[in-house]
Amino acid sequence: MSAAPLASAPPPKGRPVTLSTLAEKKALGEPLVMVTAYDYPSARVAEAAGVDLVLVGDSAAMTVLGYESTVPVSLDEMLMLAAAVRRGLRTPLLVGDLPFGSYERSNEQAVATAQRFVKEAGCDAVKLERGGPSVERARAIVDAGIPVMGHVGLTPQTATALGGYRSQGRTAEQALAVLRDAIELERAGCFAIVLEAIPRELTIEIVKRVSVPTIGIGAGPDTAGQVLVFHDLLGLFEGHTPRFVKRYANLREQMVAAVRRFCEEVRGRAYPADEHCYEMAPDESARLQALLSAQEEHVEEPFTGGPSL
Ligand SMILES: Nc1nc(=O)c2c([nH]1)NC[C@@H]1CN(c3ccc(C(=O)N[C@@H](CCC(=O)O)C(=O)O)cc3)CN21
Ligand SMILES: CC(C)C(=O)C(=O)O
Ligand SMILES: [Mg+2]
Predict the structure, then answer these.
(1) Assigned superfamily of 19-249
(2) What ipTM was reported for this prediction?
(3) Taking the model in full, what pTM does it have?
């Protein structure tokens, strides 16, 4: 066999990414890459592309479940998606996004929910939103032995209280509040913190004062890593995409075009062609014809094997 690798051959699988891997990469100044994934094929794509972390984001509510915000998605819906992602993933660290309402009520609720992500969906870590009351929840989950990722700035689960999907920390006082949240989440034991939709000036101050890796989405280039929503970067999401999104492909267009061709070919009888058909061996086909003729000679109604209608 030729030693030349085929373009379609799966890439060699790396060692699983751990929390130490992430800290080491940050220390070396190597950017961390995270993408969201919501099912088996998107997980396979993320793995093949070589990302460091995969987030089963509650953005699934909007990207794959068709809700108008991230608020309605249930814990069971998130667990089903996370389990599918787990089955497609080996190398990247898998983080499950705790959905709205599944962790706020008490430390006990937060730990129980985080444990379901680990036990039932096979996640390596969980993510929760906000500082303030979430800091204590983060600490409780960390104390239960489950790594926690924080998330400050624009926190979509409580966007209504923030005035909608708008960037955060743009006044000096608000910036200080976001910085405090990040510092408190690090103190609570978070292994990384997502910074969403905040001005670069604020990101720089947070990065100076927090030693765990920061992962930005609309936070500028100064974070230890970047995250984007899978459907946004692939041009697979039909709704409004935030300003921080860069499209690396236009897959929705390609998908519509492909399904449209399928419609045309079925309607024009161009599909299926010979190569898509099954065949009987010629002798079996001849025997079938013989059997059919024999039946037609001896039976009045050849095709009614059962009771007549
Ligand atoms: N597909 C998708 N991608 C995301 O990044 C994402 C979701 N869904 N769902 C949950 C949240 C919502 N996100 C968003 C949505 C919009 C803006 C945005 O464009 N904000 C602008 C305009 C706000 C306004 O109208 O005032 C801004 O300048 O902040 C930011 C983050 C991020 N998250
Ligand atoms: C954008 C990331 C950080 C997220 O929380 C999500 O996709 O739900
Ligand atoms: Mg989220």
Answers:
(1) Phosphoenolpyruvate-binding domains (3.20.20.60)
(2) 0.94
(3) 0.91
